[in-house]
Amino acid sequence: MTLKGRTALVTGSTSGIGLAYAKAFAAQGANLVINGFGDAGAIEQERLALEAASGGKAIYSAHDLTRADEIEAMMAQAAEAFGGVDILVNNAGTQHVAPVESFPVDKWNLIIALNLTSAFHTTRLAVPYMKEKKWGRIIQTASAHSLVASPFKSAYVTAKHGLAGFTKTIALELATFGVTANCISPGYVWTPLVENQIPDTMKARNMTREQVINDVLLAGQPTKQFVTAEQVAEIALFLCSDAASNITGTNISVDGGWTAG
Asked: PROSITE patterns of this UniProt entry (predicted)?
């Protein structure tokens, strides 16, 4: 498979799963739009490495995905550079762990905006180009939490369930246009997002760090192994292949058996 001549936009792609997606697409020759926060020097190094790997062009967007006007500016930047986006990966997300009665309202609003609403805005802006080209791939990084729930994660579980429903809807709308829409739902992947929620979980459950890892994070994964970002990225590559042209509206679990029970 080659993605030469295609353009992939991956949100939240300066680290973790998002960066793994970007590297996988670059290895297949795609142009890239990466987005996220972080150290400017480190991001520039990653951008240059993506260009070197792809033989194409990679640009960086620092736009804030919690704001509709900023998302519009990012998508306009992609359109100006490449004409539009062929592959859209909605991956940006954040997490907060707290009991519902003390869940901070600002954290709820942030999680819904970044994990769910941003995907609506990027999709509505990407779809016209995909329809015109009669080819497109929309991929959501959902979560096992798009299928099942865990306590103390009300906003995240709500956002991920919503993302799964949104994906089914747009898959039906785009089914005759050569555009597919699917979720990839990992279990726990060892990323900064997962690592950073450990202290809050320790506090909420009165546990040690080791207990949180073994008895909470990996408790539901029968394999007792973290999923890797590279495994998730390989599934995204498959969804971009011709072999996956009739896979749409699905939610692919990559969770070590978590949701099998």
From this structure: ADH_SHORT
21 is catalytic: no
Using alpha carbons, select from 218, 226, 251, 250 the residue that is nearest to residue 146.
Answer: 251
Please name every residue paired with 184 in a beta bridge, in sequence order, or none if there are none: 141, 252
Nearest to 249 by CA among 112, 134, 139: 139
Query: CATH number for the domain including 30?
Result: 3.40.50.720
Asked, for residue 209, whether it belongs to a domain, the answer is no
194 to each of 51, 72, 120, 162, how far by Cα in Å? 28, 29, 24, 20
What range defines the domain where residue 20 resides? 7-188+228-260
The residue annotated as part of the active site, out of 21, 60, 129, 156, is 156
Q: Looking at the domain assignment, is residue 221 inside a domain?
A: no
Indicate the helix (H) or strand (E) that contains 136: strand 136-141
User: pLDDT tens digits for 189-248?
Assistant: 988 778 888 999 999 899 999 999 999 899 889 999 999 999 999 999 999 999 999 999
pLDDT in tens, 68-106: 999 999 999 999 999 999 999 999 999 999 999 999 999
**DSSP secondary structure code for residue 14 in this structure:** S
Residue 57 lies in a domain: yes
Query: Where are the alpha helices (H) located in the chain, listed in sequence order?
Result: 16-27, 40-54, 68-82, 105-112, 118-133, 154-173, 192-205, 209-211, 229-239
Token duo for residue 137: 């791939």
- Model pLDDT, residue 140: 98
SS3 126: helix
